[in-house]
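Fold this sequence, please.
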Amino acid sequence: MRTLVRITLIVLAVAFIAFVIVMYLRSRGKRQELVLAEAAPVVPDLTQENVTADQLPEDGWTRLGRELMERGELRLAIRAFYLASLAHLGQREYIRLARHKSNHDYDRELQRRARGNGELLAAFDENLFVFEGAWYGDHEVTPVTLQGFSQNLERIRAC
C-alpha cells in the first residue's frame, strides 16, 4: 500500500512538473506583444451647424478639407478650411474659440487683436465673405474659389 501511494505521488509530481514545463514553453513561444490602442479622432459631421473649430486641430481640419476636395464635396471642404483658419487663429491667441460666438464675433475680435496686421485682416475678411456666401448663401464653390480661399489661408498662416 505504501509503495502504491509513493508511486502515485511520484507520477503526480512528474505530471505536474511536465505540465509546468509545457506551459512555460508555450508561453515563451507565443511572445505576446503589447498593443497600445490609439483613440481615433472623431471626425465631426460638417453638415451639422453645431460643429466648432476646437473639435480638431488646425492640421486635422486641413486634412479633412483636402479629403473633401478630392471627393468633390467643395462646399464642405471650404467649411473645413474655414474652421482650420479659426483653429489657427485660436492657437495663436488672436481669437478665443467659443461655441456661442458668431463668425462676425471672431472678425471683430480679430480686428481688435491684430489691429496692425492689415494683411492678416484682409485675408481673413476675404475668406469670411467667401465662406458665408457659400455656406449660408447660394454661392457656388468651384476649384478656383477654393484655390483663392487656400491662398488666403496661407497668407493668414504666414502673418
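DSSP finds six helices and no strands in the chain. The chain has a mean pLDDT of 88.
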